[in-house]
Amino acid sequence: MKSPDFFPFPSGRRKKWRGKLIYEYIFLLIAVACIIIISFWMTRYIVKYSAMEQSRQSLDVIFQQAEERIKIFEEDIESLHMNVLHSSSVQDFFQAGDMAGRWDSLEGFYQVVGNNRRINRNLQNILLYDASGELIAAKGDVYLPRPEDIAENGLYTYSDCMTDKKTKASYFEVGMPVFERNLESGYHQIGSVYLLFDVKYLQSIVDSVLPNEKSAVGILDGKGNLAVSAGDWKEEYALFNNSSEDDGNLIHVHKISRMGWRMISVVPKHSMLSGVTQMQKVNYITYLVVLFVMCLVCATVYRRIIKPISRQTSFMADFTRDTGQRIEVTGENEISEMARKMNEMLDDIEALNREIVDSQKKYLEQEYARKQTEMIAYKSQINPHFLYNTFNCIRGMALYKGEREIAELTMSLSCFFRYSVQGDEMVTVAEALENLSHYSNIIRCRFNGKHQVNTAASKEVLEKRIPKLLIQPLVENAVLHGLEMKPQGGRVFVEITETKKQGTDKLAVTVKDDGDGIDTEKLRALKDAMERYDREGTISEKGLGIGFLNVYRRLRLFYGQAADFELESAEGKGTRIRMWLPVGQDE
Questions:
Q1: What one-character DSSP code corresponds to residue 242?
Q2: Which residues are paired to 564 by β-bridges?
Q3: What is the pLDDT of residues 505-528, one digit of tens each?
Q4: Cα dihedral across residues 360, 361, 364, 369: positive or negative
Q5: Which helix (H) or strand (E) covers residue 319, if one does?
Q6: Which of 155, 149, 87 is nearest to 116 (CA)?
C-alpha cells in the first residue's frame, strides 16, 4: 500500500524549502551579531552618560555643602563682631576721653579678645581704631595693619587677602564701625573694630570640595589673588567669572557676596570618568569573549544540528517515493538519537499498519457474529404478557385452594418481573422502594423469614428519579453473599435522603447489611476493578461479583463523574455501600 504524500509542494519547491533553514540560520546569526554590537555601543553610551550625570549631581551636592559652610562662616564672623561691639568693655574703651581711661578699660578689652578667640579659633587679632583712623588698641598673635583699599559691604568692610612677610601665611580683615548715641545730634561714629582671621577654615572648605587629584579648587579675593587652593590649580583658572561647561572641563564659580571673593572649581571630565574607563575595558573584554563564544556556538550548532536536520528533512521529502528506506545515522548526539528513534518509529508504524489491517478484519468478523447472536436472541424472547397471565393464573389457583402465601409470592414475583422488563430506564424513588418491597417478600419466603430487607426514605425524595434496578442488585448481592451463610439470619437496610455534598444537592442512597463482610483481598480487587473501569472503561469478570460492578458501570453511564460511590466492608462487620446522585438528573 502506497503511503500518502504529506508534502504538497513539487520536488523543485521542496528543495528550495529545505534550503530555507540555512538562510534563517544565517539571518539569525547576523541579527544576533548586530544586536550585540548595538547593545555594546548603547551600553557604552549609557554608562558614560549615567556616570557623567551622577558626577554632576555629586559635584552639585558637594558645592552646595561648601557654599552653606561659607555662609555659616560669614554669619559666624558677623556674630563675633556683634559680640565685640556690644561688649561693655569695648564701649567703655572707645568712650574714654584720655589715655588713663583707656588704660582702666584695657583689661576688660583683653578679656573680650580672649573669650572671642576661644569661640573662633581662626580669629588672630582684634584691632580698635578711633574716629580719625588711628590704631588705639590691638590684641592677638598676629598683627597686620589695616589696608587702605578695603571694600565696604554695608556696615561691614572686608579686606583682600593679606600675607605675613615673615611666615608667608595668609589673612584677611573684617571691620565694622562703632557708633555713639547723642541726645542732641543723634548717632555719630566714634571708631571701628577690625577682626583679623587666618584662611585655615577656607582651606578646609576647598580641601573638602576637591573631587579628585586632577581637579582644582581655589578661593580668590576681590583683586583676583589666590587665597587658598587645592588640587592641580593653574593661574588661568583665575579668569573664570561664571559657571560653565566645555568639552574638557566642568567649571563651577560661587561668588561670596559679603566678602566680594570667589570660589572656583575646575573638574576635568576625563577625571570624572576614570572609574567608567576601567568598566569599559572590562566591557570590551566581555563583549569580545561573547562574540568568540557566539561564533563557536554557531559553528557547533551548524555542524551538530542544522546540517543533520537538513539531512533528515531531505530524507522526509523523499520518503514518500520509497517507504522502505531509512535515515542514515551518524554520531552519538541527540540528533543522531532522534534519527535512530525515527527509524524505529517508521518500523513500528509499518508493523502497526499491518496489525490494524488484521485487527480491523477480526473486528468486522466479530461484529458480524454478534449481530447474528442478537438476532437469534430477539427471535427467542418470551412475551411478557404470557408470563403475566401465567403468574395471574397461578395466583388465582392458589387463592381458590386457600394458599394465600403462594398467592402473595406469585403476586410479588409478577410485579417484580413487570417492573424489570417494562417502563423507562428512569423511575421514581417511590417506584424503586415498592419494587424492593416485592423483592423483600420473595426473600422472606425463600429463606423462611430468616433475612429481612428494611427501607426508609424522606418524603421530599419520593418523586426524585433514579435509574431503574440501581438499588435492587446491591440488595440481592448483600443477601446472597453477606447474609445467606449466617445461621441466625440478618438484615439489609436501605436509606434514601437528600443532602448537600461539596455545596451541591445530592441524593444519598445507602445500602447496609450486617453480614459476614468482604475479605480484604476481594475488597481491594473490587476497588481496583472500579478504578480500572474509570481509567479504561472495561469491567473484569474474574469472580468479582459482576452484579455489583454492573451497578457501578450503570452509575457511571448515567451520571459520569457527577456521582460518587463509596464501598466500606470488614470481615464479620458487614458491608456498607453509599451513592451520592445528582438531584434532578433524569437521563
A1: S
A2: 580
A3: 889 999 998 888 888 888 888 888
A4: negative
A5: helix 307-319
A6: 87
